[in-house]
Write a structure and sequence with these properties.
Blueprint: H1 2-13, H2 18-24, H3 29-37, H4 44-54, H5 58-61, H6 78-89, H7 92-109
Length: 114
């Protein structure tokens, strides 16, 4: 099943251990492992939480599409949508790094910090 591979890949892409992922989704490690290896079906509510946390669509998580971008507001310009989509794919560590660099760029331009 594709979704187990996706769940594992997303966890690893975010530099998380199974234990850390289990804590994020408020469950025991053994339960999380069962979802990741396919011993148990992932409940819809949990799938929604995972998709939101990892910044992907439910279709991507379920293996129905290879397009991993979650829905972003259409009112955003294409470059803004791209930034949001790519930001969501970063690990928490790299999100912090990116925000630090953004702050530095804003300082250089004399703009307010976020």
């Amino acid at each position: 099943m594709e979704h187990q591979n996706r769940i594992r890949a997303l966890r690893e892409d975010h530099d998380l251990t199974q234990k850390q992922a289990a804590e994020i989704f408020f469950m025991q490690l053994t339960q999380y492992r069962r979802y990741e290896v396919g011993e148990r079906a992932v409940p819809l509510e949990l799938a929604c939480q995972m998709a939101e946390y990892y910044g992907v669509s439910l279709d991507y998580l379920a293996g129905r599409t290879d397009h991993d971008a979650a829905v972003v507001p259409r009112s955003m310009a294409p470059k803004e949508q791209l930034l949001v989509t790519r930001y969501r794919r970063l690990s928490e560590t790299n999100k912090i790094r990116l925000l630090e660099r953004l702050e530095a760029l804003l300082e250089m331009e004399g703009k307010e910090q976020i």
